[in-house]
Structure formats: structure tokens, C-alpha cells
Amino acid sequence: MFFFFGFDDFKKDAVIIKLISEWNEKSKKPLGRTTIQKLCYFAEAIGVPLGYKFSVYQYGPYSQELYTHIDDMVSSGLVDDEYSVKKQKTEFSSYLASEKARDLLILYCEVLRETEDKISFLVEYFKDKNPQKLELLSTTHYYYAANKGFYKGLSEDDLRSLTIRKVIEAKKDRFKQHEINEAYNSLIKTPQFN
User: Fold this and answer.
1) DSSP H or E stretch at residue 29
2) Read out DSSP for 87-99?
3) CA dist 113 to 119, 121, 142, 150, Å?
4) Phi, psi of 2 (to 5 degrees)
5) Strand partners, 55
6) What is the 3-state secondary structure (H, E, C) of 148-193?
7) What CA–CA distance (Å, rounded) separates 101 from 122?
8) What pLDDT does 53 receive?
9) Over the stretch 66-95, which tens digit does the pLDDT of each residue have?
């Protein structure tokens, strides 16, 4: 078994391509910019060492480095970005692994074996979630993890209250308190996210 403190760019590419491929195989939802950000955030959270730094942004945890990396992958032909048009005529990305990407998956098959269970778990867990739900879950997890790490002695009730308060502060009126509670409960019941 390999132990990585982080992946080089080609290994990151392989893991991201695997994530994109599996998402498109198992989910009926398009894989756009928000969704790939959230999936990579959660991949980091469950131990896939992609090495991206995330901070809370407009739609939850966001990494500018990941954003740039995905654009580079599109430019290099590893990822296809098929723009879709919504009813409001707003374009959004829909990422697909390119034919060129298959070679990279073969080259890094050992790395992918180490991460495939985690990638499969993420895709299975999130495949039916829309970007807004992913925003809520990832923002809730972000504050949960930050609070749990910073305030080591908090009771579970205090950790819940603080996390929910932080999400409400960050998201204002975007989500109702009962939705944030549901997101918190969903994450707490899932051992991979604790």
C-alpha cells in the first residue's frame, strides 16, 4: 500500500478523472463546477490527499486551485466540458472524462485502487443530490470539522449548535434551520464524515 502526503498533478488528474467517470456512470445529474468542487472537498475530508485548500465561498467550500486545475484539465483535453443550457438560458459546465483520459487511468491504476472505495462511496452518497443540497451539506461539514478541530472539548450538543449557527451566519436566508439540522444529522450518521 502507498501512503501519500499529497498527489502530484498527474495523480490528482487520475483521481479527478475517476471521480468524473464514476459520477457520469452512476448519477443522472450533470457534473458541473459546483458539484466537482463539493465532491473534491468531501474526497479530502474522507482521506483522499488531493492537497487542495478549501475556504467557504458563495456556494460553500471552494478551492481556487481546484478551479484552475479543472480548467487546465479541460484545456489539455483530459476533461471535456459540454456546456448545457438551462431554461433560463444560463450556461453551466458538464464535465466528462475524455478518451485521452483513459490512458491516465491505466497509468495510475495503483493509486486509483487505493482511492476507489472512497470515490465509490462519495458518488453513491451524493449521486442524487443537486448542487444546492451539496452546497448545504459541504458548508455544514466544513463548519462541523472546523469547530470539532478547534474546540476539542465541546459536547455534541454544543458542537451541533455552534455548527448550525455558523452555517446560518454564512448562508443567511439561503437555507432554513430545519434544512441545516437535516444536513447535520445526515452527516453525523455517516461515519466517513466524522
Assistant:
1) none
2) TT--EE--EEE-T
3) 10, 13, 27, 33
4) -90, 145
5) 62
6) HHHCCCCCHHHHHHHHHHHHHHHHCCCCCHHHHHHHHHHHHCCHHH
7) 21
8) 96
9) 999 999 999 999 999 987 545 555 568 899
Q: Against a cut of 0.85, is the pTM above it?
A: yes
- What pLDDT is stored for residue 15 in this prediction? 96
pLDDT at residue 37, rounded to an integer: 98
State CA 144 to chain mean position distance.
Answer: 15
Single-letter amino acid code for the residue at 170: A
Nearest CA to 48 out of 91, 84, 3, 90 is that of 3
Residue 127: all three cell numbers together: 449521486
**Nine-digit cell string for 140:** 455544514
Cα dihedral 61→67→70→75 (10° resolution): 170
Burial code (b: 16+ CB inside 10 Å, e: under 16) for 57-66 equals eebbbbbeeb
Q: Which residue has the cell 452527516?
A: 187
CA 136/CA 60 separation, integer angstroms: 7
All residues at 6 or more sequence positions from 126 whose CB lies less than 8 Å from its CB, including other chains: 27, 35, 38, 39, 42, 134, 137
Low-confidence ranges of the chain (pLDDT < 50): 1-6, 85
Per-residue pLDDT at 41: 98
CA-wise closest residue to 185 among 122, 137, 135: 137
- Total Cβ atoms within 10 A of residue 84: 11
